[in-house]
Design a protein that fits this description.
The chain is α/β, with parallel strands linked by helices. The protein is built from 14 helices and 10 strands. It has helices at residues 3-6, 17-24, 63-76, 95-104, 123-126, 142-149, 153-173, 193-203, 232-239, 252-255, 293-296, 306-311, 313-322, 340-350, and strands at 33-36, 80-83, 108-113, 130-136, 178-184, 207-211, 247-250, 272-275, 280-282, 299-300.
Amino acid sequence: MNEKDLILDGHKLLWHQDRVKDMLMGWKVAPITIDCALTTACSYKCVYCYGQLQKHEGYNLSKDTIMSFLDDAAEIGVKGMSFVSDGESAHSPHLYEAILRGKKNGMDMALGTNGFALKDERLEDILPALTYIRYNISSCKPKEYARIHGVDEKAFYKVVDTIKESVKIKKQRELDVTIGLQMVLLPDYASEILPLAWFGRDIGADYLVIKHCSDDETGALGVPYGKYDGLVDILQEAENKSTENYVVKAKWSKILSGGKRNYDQCLAVPLMLQMSGSGLVAPCGFLFNDKYKDKFHIGNIAEKRFKDIWKSDRYWEVMDYLSSEKFNAHTDCGTLCLQHKANEFLWDLKQGKINLQPPTGKPPMHINFI
């Protein structure tokens, strides 16, 4: 396993050119990937959490609603479903069945989790059905972990045990699932980088990805993007801990971007949709907040079938608006969103700066998670 296989700082649209071409031609395309949660509940209070800025009303999603959503997503052509959004999906009693249902429907399934609410006894069931499981952990020191994630120190030890159990099951059953760790990096926590890089290698994870912290368009979280420049040496040292079986990767293109973007509109959302754990369908996590309701909220899967929301005039009106000159990605967006790398690529494609060329080499891992 190496960095090129994983593509932890980039996108995989070159391997989905048919859908890219259809979208640029104005066809109504299904998302390749949907990032969503099954609940908005979370027992953590991470200092960097964007969820505090996403407040809106919604529903506790029932089993029937979740299963219908997964059936609809597969029916319209969604290829990858990742349970990563504005809530901890392990708090939903339907998580385990949802992973199995999505896999049965033919979609690649993934889970991002803090691991605390995950039931270790269900790992045997879900790991064979997952393309990857990613544990969000920003320190391997109990006291610092508790401070950064807003929990009791006891949570750290439970999470470590769960990661170890995941690694054990993967090895014993020779599973293809990738077990990753993710550190959300704020400059003040630079001292956690190297210990976490060692920790990931020692515990048997497949990778550690170190990412920036996102902020909204007003800078509400106060992320000091200028300070990331001073972390280059320590991040490079962390990456040097990579081995043949373990990758440490910093998301350089975002960490060193200063929170800026070089595209004017958002083109990637039809290919990379996000959904709230409340059931809200909106273009992306930045737009979940009720203050964006009139312009950007599309529908709720607890009120209407997802395939009908996707077919609706409202859905495509919002998509068209985001790609039009009426929308300004420099002022109307938060910083360094999920769709950022895909937007850079699609913008250059639309502007004629690049052309679509057949990809070379073997396809990357996790190809349906853009």
